[in-house]
Amino acid sequence: MAKKQQAIQAIRGMHDILPEHSPRWHKVEAAIREVVDSYGYQEIRLPIVEKTELFKRSIGEVTDIVEKEMYTFDDRNGDSLTLRPEGTAGCLRACLEHGLLHNQVHRLWYCGPMFRHERPQKGRYRQFYQLGVETYGMAGPDIDAEMILLSERLWKKLGIRNKVELQLNSLGTSEERAAYREKLVDYFKAHLELLDDDSLRRLETNPLRILDSKNPDMKQLIAEAPELMDYLGEDSRNHFHALTATLDDLGVSYVLNSRLVRGLDYYGKTVFEWVTDELGAQGTICAGGRYDGLIEQLGGKTNHAIGFALGMERLLALVEMQADFKVDPMVDAYMIRVGTDAEKVGMRVAEQLRTELSGLKLQVHCGGGSFKSQFKKADKSGAEYAVIIGDEEAARGEVSLKPLRTGEEQQNMPVPELVGALKGWLARRNSRSAS
Ligand code: HAM
């Protein structure tokens, strides 16, 4: 007897999105599309695998992502490739490669899986989905404000604006950061005994990241550290003030967070995060900022860029917490066919309904069975209606329509009348969901 094979399971931190969950994703994705369309953004679709060098050069050699979290492998040619840990680097690579940044302005978005070998926990996965928004060719601060307005509009559309807080900071220019870095290193060196191992390491490699430490023992030390804002030059200050003035003007609330430094090296000037305290430790649902300097770093001419990415799993978790979050049922009508003639006629009627009623979700029962067992399936499908055909109805050219959720009577009718009845119901439903 053949030995029973052990079932193979998914990789830790990489999840299936099962059919019962995909309607929730569709609902959030539809809201995203509506919002990005309303600001005139275009979709860009990018490869999932890029040359490893791209991420090293853009995210930074001494960041957690590049040091510890990338899925890197040699392909059959011996080239080092990496599953993208984020989308900004690939998006900019594509725009440079195709000459899109030459005297042009672009507003782009993408959505897809990213990969980081982090320790999995709730809200932190090894494969996760991001919506990314990237813009090129605009020096700001008006486009900086647009980034924030666009994301805020999405929160409002999804009913979660009161659950998220906008945190803002400016990282200034690379020269300003270098001057600040020196002051910060001096400050931490004067308190070496208070630094944990991670921070001692960062003191040599990336001291600004110490400000991001979650170690409660270092809270006080970090709170008293010098502030980057005090080292910004006039241009950076004006840029930041113009952004906050626009947000004030439009009534967008925010919190200034001078410790917001971000975990990727490519940022300068504006950085922001949308955070919530309803998701436990993984509370940042969206983050981004300006990365003008990266364009030259990847071989382009001086130019401007700002963008953000949001974690789809975190956003969904937040959206699903609302009591009134509902998705449309998968099926509007379920066709029950009992009898040889009924099966044949039913298939024809179903095709006619699909042709004449755009937007109708109709499932035809396949595989036979009694009226009773087919009704059970119809009920379980969540459909609003059962369309019933037995051999007698088939012979008369009729069908029965039974509302499954309202307790209304079942009615016999010829096929054209069925088309009319379902058309009326679809129109009523569409106008309800539009209002
Ligand atoms: P990031 O802060 O690394 O930025 O990621 C953005 C968002 O992706 C996070 O706020 C979080 O919601 C989600 N995220 C990150 N890692 C995970 C994970 N392991 N599991 C689940 N969700 C996660 C970027 O990726 C930049 N590319 C953002 C950007 C675009 N900046 C400019 N343009």
TrEMBL record:
Protein EC: 6.1.1.21
GO MF entries: ATP binding; histidine-tRNA ligase activity
Main location: cytoplasm
Domain of life: Bacteria
One example of a Gene Ontology biological process annotation: histidyl-tRNA aminoacylation
All residue ranges annotated as the Aminoacyl-transfer RNA synthetases class-II family profile domain in the record: 27-329
Residues at which L-histidine binds: 86-88, 116, 130, 134, 262, 266-267
PANTHER family tied to this protein: HISTIDINE--TRNA LIGASE, MITOCHONDRIAL-RELATED, HISTIDYL-TRNA SYNTHETASE
UniProt similarity note: Belongs to the class-II aminoacyl-tRNA synthetase family.
Name recorded for this polypeptide: Histidine--tRNA ligase
